[in-house]
Amino acid sequence: MNILHNISLQKYNTFGIHVVAKRFISVDAVYQLKELLKEEKDIFLISGGSNMLLTKDIEKLVVHVDIKGISIDKEDENHVYLTVNAGENWHDFVLWCVSQNYGGIENLSLIPGNVGTCPIQNIGAYGVEVKDTITKVEALEIENQKLRIFSNDDCKFGYRNSIFKNDEKGKYVITSVGFKLTKKNHQLDTTYGAIENELASKEIKKPTLKDISDAVIAIRKSKLPDPKEIGNSGSFFKNPVIAKTAFLKLQKEYPKIPSYPVISSGVEKSQVKVPAGWLIEKAGFKGKRFGDYGVHEKQALVLVNYGNASGKDIYQLAKNIQQKILELFNIALEIEVNIIH
Ligand code: EPU
Q: Is the pTM of this model over 0.85?
């Protein structure tokens, strides 16, 4: 296998941070990965690189998971079951599904990253989370190179969360993900205000999967920076969940503060979710630029690299934001992106 030396990881992470991998290898087949893991277990995995902030050079062997391929396992009149290899680009996969009239993930159009990492943080947008279509996650256990199949329940999915961020963190390399998608009677989710507005502006009353995908693409393009143009990792923080009592106090001071109910297993909880973007904007950070990095001008939840920012600079900015939000609102903002120290 071909190990490369002193490779810049700039094009392998959507933040576009330049750090060096002392040793780097790209694998495009499961058997290669197995062979590699027999020799070397202390590795640093990179796939789409869309949810990480690199703050220094990587000493461990960097393994770029580039296993491609989509297969149809079975289908009936209503559903199709797919296995998609980890290295497939997420958005290309969504577009392919839309073109095949396979429904369920059209609201997740244009999310950066690869299929193999979508379960880790349970990607979600515009009312849909990927967990609702995932049937299984196949992963190689690093310690013994055995293939393990996680059912949807095994993954313990939550808001931007799964077992792969908690109990099983660092123990597996995800090799493929299974999906169950609809072939007809699609369960379209157009409830998210911005989608409704986008469809209404085009006078679309009976949207197709493509109409929804197009609407989401238009909304994301209008708000979120394209990582190919401005380095970023999407939402840098999670939307905080706070007690309703604390929210009511805040509402007295900030009558316009938005909130969403928190519903778990169909029951509304005594907590609410507050958009972190609103808090950060209110704290005065939106659109602030500090040299080569800053806070995006159209969505305050997104930190950006305008060129040659370092991961340390961006991390420091994140800490300043957290500090200010704590002072102003008594809310502890949690970072969503993986910080690589
Ligand atoms: N808002 C502001 N200022 C801002 C940004 C947001 O006031 O700069 C307020 C507005 O009131 C707006 C509300 O926040 O109505 C919600 O904003 P938006 O619809 O942009 O959604 P979000 O809660 O900020 C979440 C996800 C996004 C996802 C969108 C749409 C998280 C951490 N982020 O953002 O996910 O695209 O909803 O569903 O849950 C990502 O994870 O990388 C990501 C982009």
A: yes
